[in-house]
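One chain is below:
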Amino acid sequence: MLNRAARYFPILEEARRCLQGEGRILEIGSGPEGIGEFYRYPFIGCDVWFAVQPRKPMFPVICSGTLLPFADASFDIVIASDVMEHVAPEQRTSLIAEALRVAKKQAIFGFPCGASAFALDQRLFVDYRDRNIEPPVWLQEHMRHPFPEGDLFQNVPEGWTVVRKANESLTFHYWLMRKEMHRLWNYGFRCALRVTPGLVRRILRRFDADPSYRSIFIATRHQPA
């Protein structure tokens, strides 16, 4: 639970800064809930399938992130959080291109980035097995492909500017994922998010530092003068 907050809080902070209120948002690879855990306005969430019934305020659409059934610039903001590492390397640039195509103002991509992050997840995978716990499906999928690098954004189309921000230091992410193996810690994290979300947000931001587990890339479209 806290791990999802750690990755979504900075993304939503960027989105709110861009929108200055409500706006039309698409989340690629949302799963059944996506930003809806922490965002109360309606948004579109798309995925190749939904393991359980999607929850409001999300409106679900079944599709591939590399072939979106939406018109150009039809969303103010497009979000892809912890999706890129689940996509085959040869399809990653296609997903970025589609996200930028349908984004009017901004596209935000957050994902585990680089060899150090991949090595950390390999270590975490062994930790689960050593504790006789089945590794989560998402972690099993992380083992399939090398993690993407920041050079994915070297050739974005003209008219876009991309900025990178660190999200979750490697040491903090490993500590957090180890704690989330325990039910009591998970319960405590959930209570803290419910009772003092602002305080939790400020604490989490202190651990957004390099070397990071995850990078957030904010692509902003240049607006006409």
User: Anything to note?
Assistant: The mean pLDDT is 94.
